[in-house]
Amino acid sequence: MSAAAQVVVVGSFNIDHVWHGEALPRPGETLVGSYATGPGGKGFNQATACARSGARTVFVCALGTDAGAELARGLAARDGIDLRAESPDAPTGTAGIYVARDGSNSIVIGPGANGLLSPEFIARQAQAIAAARLVLAQLESPVESVLEAMRLARAAGVRTILNPAPANAPSTRELLAVADVLTPNETEFAALLARHAGERVDAGALAEFDDARLHRLCRLLLPRGTVVITLGAAGAFVSHREDKCRGDEVACYRVPAFEAATVDTTGAGDAFNGALASSQAVAPDRSFADHVRFASRYAALSTEHEGAAAAMPKLATR
Questions:
Q1: What does the entry list as the binding residues for ATP (predicted)?
Q2: Which CATH architecture has domain 7-26+33-310?
């Protein structure tokens, strides 16, 4: 890539194995459905969304020495993504995904090489990180490696977004502290509150909380940064530090979800995060609310197609 990347994404690549059926299987139940396979992993999904929504993108990951790795490299090249991969002694990551007719899904991940992405390899990407406008990471890679990427970004004055997914992934207070923006969904937000703030809330009820209560919980979790809680069909809730509203007029507000002819919600959260990063990097002078609306619309469009990375819409212009 001749020009400096606007977004560096640090994260995972998986080969997704996807089964579609009438409903999600219950424990002990066998269902008949259809099968497909394709690229995924939160990191690659978000990198693809970044690139397809307009940002020059570097993707830092770990891959095996197998057909999955070759697929990753080929797909990245097709979307103009500068892929930089460590090659540990492990297979490329995999995921088993079950999708019901209503678009709901459940996922099991086999990390493989993703679990071996090292801080040392991340450190070798310091020049690319320092030249970027934004670094985006998730938690399907080792915490210490994600932390190294975020530290390098902060040291260079580069903005950071942490998508703390999946909900059961380990995280530390130190990691949260180096995130300028934190983007959990309801389940991830509830898990982080319990783990780091000693507050227990019902994830399924969060969308019904009033704004003042949600804002207080966000400030408790991330006092110095911005929290964006994605609430599915209920849209998103944004909470800023009172004296750092990122171009917005108020410290907390909601952004409604965009309507879509939903087929598959598998990669919607990744579409949102990738587009949020892309929008901030490409149009830094716009208000944060504009970036969230752009990301919400992009995520809605992604649900109208099956798959994860393959479902990310390709936009002609920002």
A1: 185, 230-235, 269-270
A2: 3-Layer(aba) Sandwich (3.40)
